[in-house]
Amino acid sequence: MRITPSTHYQYERIKPDDDCMHEECGVFGIYMEDDVYDPAEAAYLGLYALQHRGQESAGIASVVKDDIRLYKGMGLCAEVFKNDLDRLYGGRIAIGHVRYSTTGDSQVLNAQPLVMSYRGGKMAIAHNGNLVNTDVLRKKLEEDGAIFQTTLDTEVMAYLLAKNAKDGMVESIKKMMEVVKGSYALVITTNDTLIGVRDPQGIRPLALGRLDDNFVLASESCAFDTIDAEFIRDVRPGEIVVINKDGFHSYQTSLSLDTALCIFEYVYFARPDSDIDGISVYRARENMGRRLAQAYPVEADLVGGVPDSATPAAVGYAEESGIPFKKALAKNRYVGRTFIQPKQSLRDRAVKLKLNAMKRNVHGKKIILIDDSIVRGTTSRKIVEMLRLAGAREVHMQISSPPVTCPCYFGIDTPSHDQLMGAKNSVEEMRKIIGADTLNFLTKEDLLKTVEGAGCNFCTGCFDGHYPVDIKKACAQTQKLDLTQVFK
Ligand code: AMP
Predict the structure, then answer these.
(1) Contact 413 CB / ligand 1 (< 6 Å)
(2) pLDDT tens across 342-376, in order?
(3) Structural domains of the chain, with CATH
(4) The pTM of the whole model exceeds 0.85
(5) At which positions is [4Fe-4S] cluster bound (predicted)?
(6) Closest C-alpha residue for ligand 1 atom 23
(7) Ligand 1 centre and the CA of 375: distance in Å?
(8) Which of 105, 110, 256, 478 could form a disulfide with 133 if both were Cys (CB 3.0 to 4.6 A apart)?
């Protein structure tokens, strides 16, 4: 879900420190027929496992009797639910959300889930992803009298759902899916039904699990392990899954041949112990490292990875090359993601706060250092400097993805075009800026080979600017839509 102006052209105009438009989130939902867990407690544990997908706010909505109770706040799960989880106990269904944003609209109003009253009762909705035509939709709806309380595109979806609710929630979701464009993995609960929805191209992941006779939905399968649930399968692109007292039902809306799961989930974002669309995140990363080793062999004393996201790729590189894997950097576990700092000066400090060179391991050594991506280049520059100060003789940087050259409009936090190091510089220029002896990137072709066999195709927009939705066209089409006809 996103919170600021949304057309392609508005994005391009966003100023350097204004890179607040992108959101990353995690969603969770559970329907409990029996009493293995209280759903609110399961949601809490599930969100905890998805904390890497969002650290800014967390929320749980729980269906208790005929009511939906909501508790949400700013901060990590442990902080938000410190004293108040028990007020959500006693229900059958719970959904939850963790949100990560860089700056801007960081207020509890924009935290999720959103709870709304509509003609069918109450509903709560949690969204991971990013719509690209919300501004146009919002404006049209506002002209028609709609009032919005938040700046979230999620609220626009909730409004569209409520608008058409007379034909039942599934029909209403289908209609909404015809109108909204972009990425969305949704968990929704009404007073008696848990629903999961994945956008027609499957841009963001959504997994389905089972805990005895109870169903669970989560952005990533790692959340199931935390509550001893078993992974069943991924929700398919364009699929609506419905869980209530009548059991489990699936509705497949228009099948897109052009599926486009975000490849950055494998590169960086997802947890290594998750499987997404049939591919283990850990294995994919390990293979990225192996392919780097095949493509760019270097004579060195050790292979290190930038912890934690690049560790599997470094292990893969070490195994393939026969060069030992050694810790080159130690990570302070109590520092959140570097990007969370809104200003460059703070981001610079944050790298030092988060990572430190292992002096005794690197002194006098030729090092191959693997990182998963270069975005602004802040991290790599600082790390190379750190390793040199610690006495490293040579630093060969290898990146397990291609240079990030284009912003993401579909739910991964990347800064605007002019802040992306790979957008403005050749690899040689980047090497000079970060100060490494050599710098190499995995090619897009090699990256795609590491996820071969997945149940879908991939969005590689951040590496090549080919996006799964033509944003301009989607906005123009939405502009022409007569919503009163769609939602008759
Ligand atoms: P940078 O310093 O801007 O080049 O950031 C690159 C580093 O940030 C890499 O070490 C990645 O592990 C990490 N990273 C990549 N993408 C993201 C993201 N969307 N949010 C937070 N961290 C990221």
Answers:
(1) yes
(2) 566 776 677 888 899 999 999 999 999 999 999 99
(3) 2-260+479-486 (3.60.20.10), 280-451 (3.40.50.2020)
(4) yes
(5) 262, 408, 459, 462
(6) 339
(7) 6
(8) 478
